[in-house]
UniProtKB/TrEMBL annotation:
Belongs to the HpcH/HpaI aldolase family. Keywords: Lyase, Metal-binding. It comes from Martelella radicis. GO terms for cellular component: cytoplasm. This is 2-keto-3-deoxy-L-rhamnonate aldolase RhmA. Coiled coil: none annotated. Residues 25-212 form the HpcH/HpaI aldolase/citrate lyase domain. One of its GO terms (molecular function) is metal ion binding.
Length: 255
């Protein structure tokens, strides 16, 4: 099902294990608005991520790469390899966010090294000024807020030029607030609201990851969320397998 209105929040699928280009075709055909290649928790490496990103460019499906954290050596490299944007987890301080901007943005905002031909230009060699303009225009840098210190620093992080959005890691933030597994706890909901307000005040995108669908309206959309990472491909496979197997068991085990 495709998005009916450009005003509606974008819904994404995380890819953790199945690092093949076929996932792009399936996600595009079923109507997801973007993909997140999860390099933090999954087994996917840079080679598979690059294949998925290039396939996404050809299919018109944005692909973000979630790296391992602010100190990841791949923060700029995933952009060089074709990612629409980079999602950086565990951004706890303004200083960490500043270091991310330094790595991901070209001068004068940051000090990202000038790469060779990029996937976003079809690998065509273009003048440096044109390359930089296209790369900057197409790059999204998202900081994930998942801790008490990150919550406290959210407003400052959102002020930075070069940071395009704030995304909540729902389960980690709930655990940090002393409510592991209790995403609907009042303290967690208020934290979502505070981060959403910080993003809105600074004109930045607000996104969430790890919310069940029954919490999305109250805990994300009502606070201005524009990016929803709905689930991952392993969850879809498991849920689909359970449902299909159950249907067949009902038929084959009838007396």
């Amino acid at each position: 099902m495709t998005r009916k209105s450009p005003e509606a929040a974008a819904i994404g699928l995380a890819i953790c294990v199945m690092g093949t280009v076929e996932t792009v075709a399936v996600a595009r055909r079923t109507g997801f608005d973007f993909l997140v290649v999860d390099m933090e928790h999954g087994r996917i490496g840079l080679d598979q991520m690059t294949d998925i990103c290039v396939a996404g460019l050809l299919a018109g499906l944005p692909v973000y790469a979630r790296v391992t954290g602010p100190a990841s050596p791949d923060i700029a490299r995933v952009l060089d390899c074709g990612a629409t944007g980079v999602i950086v987890p565990h951004v706890d301080t303004l200083q960490q966010a500043e270091a991310i901007v330094e790595k991901t943005r070209f001068l004068p905002t940051g000090s990202r090294a000038l790469p060779g031909p990029l996937a976003i230009t079809g690998f065509e060699p273009v003048p440096v000024a044109e390359l930089v303009d296209k790369a900057e225009a197409s790059t999204q840098v998202i900081a994930m807020v998942e801790s008490l210190s990150g919550l406290e620093a959210a407003e400052q992080i959102a002020t930075l030029d070069g940071i395009d959005g704030l995304m909540i890691g729902s389960n980690d933030l709930a655990a940090a607030l002393g409510c592991p597994g209790d995403i609907a706890n009042d303290a967690v909901v208020e934290a979502f609201a505070a981060i959403g307000r910080a993003a809105k005040r600074k004109g930045k995108t607000f996104g969430v990851m790890g919310l069940p669908p029954e919490r999305v309206r109250e805990q994300a959309l009502d606070f201005g969320a524009r990016m929803i990472v709905a689930t991952n491909e392993i969850n879809l496979l498991f849920e689909g397998a359970q449902r299909t197997l159950g249907d067949f068991r009902k038929i084959t085990e009838r007396g």
